[in-house]
Design brief:
The chain is an alpha+beta fold. It has 27 helices and 17 strands. The protein folds into three domains: about 200 residues, Aldehyde ferredoxin oxidoreductase, N-terminal domain (Aldehyde Ferredoxin Oxidoreductase,  A, domain 1), CATH 3.60.9.10; about 180 residues, Aldehyde Ferredoxin Oxidoreductase Protein, subunit A, domain 2; about 150 residues, Aldehyde Ferredoxin Oxidoreductase Protein, subunit A, domain 3 (Orthogonal Bundle), CATH 1.10.599.10. The strands form four sheets. It has a six-stranded mixed β-sheet. Strands 8-7-12-9-10-11 form a six-stranded mixed β-sheet. Strand 16 and strand 17 form a beta hairpin. The longest helix is centred in the last third of the chain and has 21 residues. The two termini are about 40 Å apart. The chain binds iron/sulfur cluster. The site of iron/sulfur cluster has 11 residues, from loops.
Length: about 625
């Protein structure tokens, strides 16, 4: 079987049982692998109404057929389950080398169900899976866990995905960290792992990936690297790192300052990207087979935080621990980022939830009586770090914030839900939706709540977001205004649906969307590398269908869990309260026409939110009962 390891490992922690099955042709034909494989396994494994913390929930790790090869950025893995934050499906996608190592260890996916009676970890090695005791790892942070497991197995090349204290304490804002600093996404995957008493999954493999056309793959890889290096975003990420986006959002008035009370941050120069580049950068590196050295390392050399190092500072990090909480101190941003990685927390949700609490404090909705004596002043670095600590340990006021903004707003009352920046229970990840209408729509319809990477609709930045060539974009009748006018709405519903389908295929291949953001994400290019690796003769049309099928199956999972069409919405603030400053002044999100267009492009029923029967038939999916 070219490209695939050909095996899926099933682990029942309640019974301490491991079984291994072949990766079926049906799964490959329907979903290729990676995130598509994950969604299908999740849908088939987790029963309707399952308790996210219950043994019946599944935690699934999956990789794709090109993982472990030379294909640019083919090193990632997806992890997901039913979310304790949203009650819907959730999954994330992480870099590093863990994903490639799983292939070399002989597996396309791991499906973990049940709950161990005592802390344990999985050792996955060359076709074998062992459940081993983890008592000595429990209570350790993610870096300590990584170091201890490498030492215990005498193998510095062991790859570790694990939880920190956040996951152990089953905090809904907890995530899984791979290779020390690569976050496995949002929605509480770390809490699901903690609920299973599973501390880590350590992977090591020595198996080859069989390639159908090695010469063709080598040539194709070289061609793609040349294409990538001809694109402006390659140089932007290489030279400036991911926080580049924050500068753009500040300039366009969409940086969500003071929890979205302002579009621009009045002290932005203190926390903008140049500060990290000039003062703290140690240089760049990249994950596994990624040719884009945009994963920058940082160190604080002097002062109170001297010696703190971290890497992978994202645009979202700078917003969540900088502009959203109105913090002008870049060292607090770096330390908060490092703490989130060590504790295994989703830094986006943590930052947004702290910003929400600060606004509640500003408005007198909560006081020091609620916060355990903490004065939640805007930009107070000490408070930010203290709250991260309390959230990770599920203590004091952190017990409330650790539940996320939706639950915190229910508790605080006084109409605070109006400025709780979340969708379906997941906090808004980056840009203020009022600044970019298509970006707003992708928050509203994303299957996991308000995250931007499902569609990663970069149309409004002047690009065609993968999938479509310029010619195809014209043929699809996407109006020019989609790219030229960030405040317009016509054509954006269709554009977001197109982008979601294309990005879904990128996820099935487990490529990085930063790398596949433009031409590498064209169906034509994805089909070429996939066929060179697998020899299966995938057509572009078949890839389109896989992307659409995967997106529809995520929808079906959520509908089965009770999601309604009315959940495809946005926070009251961005629908009704115009920004009063900056270049996005006076704008709110005009969501309804975009939703109408999106539903039509998807052939989903506008009233019920369900895919129409003919669409399901076309994709080979079964309907769920309303
Ligand atoms: S672009 Fe950055 S995050 Fe993506 S694979 Fe490359 S180094 Fe990793």
């Amino acid at each position: 079987m070219y490209g695939y390891a050909g095996k899926i490992g099933f682990v029942d922690l309640s019974k301490g049982r491991v079984s291994i099955e072949s990766t079926s042709e049906q799964l490959i034909k329907g979903y290729i692998g990676g995130h598509g494989l994950l969604i299908r396994l999740l849908y088939d494994t987790v029963p309707r109404g399952a308790d996210p913390y219950g043994p019946e929930n599944a935690l699934i790790f999956a990789i794709g057929p090109v993982n472990g090869t030379l294909v640019p950025s083919s090193n990632r893995f997806s992890v997901g389950g039913k979310s304790p934050a949203t009650g819907l499906m959730v999954s994330g996608n992480a870099g590093g080398l863990w994903g490639s190592e799983l292939k070399w260890a002989g597996f396309d996916a791991l499906v973990v169900t049940g709950r161990a009676t005592k802390p344990c970890y999985l050792l996955v090695e060359d076709g074998r899976i062992s459940i081993l005791p983890a008592a000595e790892l429990w209570g350790k942070d993610t870096e300590q866990t990584d170091v201890l497991l490498k030492a215990a197995h005498g193998d510095p090349n062991l790859r570790v995905a694990c939880i920190g204290q956040g996951g152990e304490n089953r905090v809904p804002l907890a995530t899984i960290i791979g290779d020390k600093t690569h976050s496995g996404g949002r929605g509480g995957t770390g809490a699901v792992m903690g609920s299973k008493n599973l501390k880590a999954v350590a992977v090591r493999g020595h198996q080859d990936v069989k390639i159908a056309d090695p010469k063709g793959l080598f040539e194709e890889t070289q061609r793609l690297i040349e294409i990538l290096m001809s694109e402006p975003h390659y140089w932007r990420y290489k030279d400036k790192g991911s926080p580049s986006g924050t500068t753009l959002y500040q300039e366009t008035g969409a940086v969500t300052a003071y929890n979205g009370q302002y579009g621009q941050f009045d002290q932005f120069d203190s926390v903008g990207r140049e500060v990290y580049l000039n003062r703290y950068s140690l240089g760049t590196t990249s994950c596994g087979s990624c040719p884009l050295p945009g994963w920058r390392k940082y160190v604080i050399r002097e002062g109170r935080f001297a010696g703190v190092w971290t890497d992978g500072l994202e645009n979202s990090t700078v917003q969540c621990f900088g502009t959203k909480v109105a913090n002008p101190n870049p060292e607090i941003v770096l330390v908060a980022h490092q703490m989130s990685n060590l504790y295994g927390l989703d830094e986006i949700s943590v930052g947004v939830t702290i910003a929400f609490a600060m606004e509640c404090f500003q408005k007198g909705i909560i006081t020091t009586k609620d916060t355990g004596g903490l004065e939640l002043r805007w930009g107070d670095g000490e408070v930010i770090l203290k709250l991260i600590d309390l959230i990770a340990h599920d203590q004091g006021f952190g017990k409330i914030l650790g539940q996320g903004t939706r639950k915190a707003a229910e508790r605080f009352g006084h109409e605070s839900e109006k400025f709780a920046l979340q969708v379906k229970g997941l906090e808004i990840s980056t840009v203020d939706p009022r600044g970019y209408q298509a970006w707003a729509l992708q928050y509203a319809v994303s299957s996991r709540g308000a995250h931007h990477m499902r569609a990663y609709s970069t149309w409004e930045f002047g690009e065609t977001p993968g999938g479509l060539s310029e010619k195809e974009a014209k043929e699809a009748n996407i109006p020019d205004t989609v790219r030229k006018d960030r405040f317009s709405v016509k054509g954006k519903g269709k554009a977001v649906a197109i982008a979601e389908n294309a990005r879904a295929v990128v996820d099935c291949l487990e490529l990085c969307k930063t790398v596949a953001r433009q031409k590498l994400g064209l169906y034509e290019n994805m089909a070429k590398v996939l066929n060179a690796v697998t020899g299966r003769g995938w057509t572009e049309e078949e890839l389109r269908k896989v992307g659409e099928r995967k997106t529809n199956l995520e929808r079906l999972f959520n509908l089965r869990e009770g999601m309604k069409a009315t959940d495809d919405t946005l926070p009251w603030r961005v629908l009704h309260e115009p920004l009063e400053d900056g270049p996005s002044k006076g704008v709110v999100v005009n969501l309804e026409p975009m939703l109408d267009e999106y539903y039509e492009a998807r052939n989903w029923d506008r009233a019920t939110g369900h895919p129409r029967p003919e669409k399901l038939k076309e994709l080979g999916l079964d309907p769920v009962d309303p």
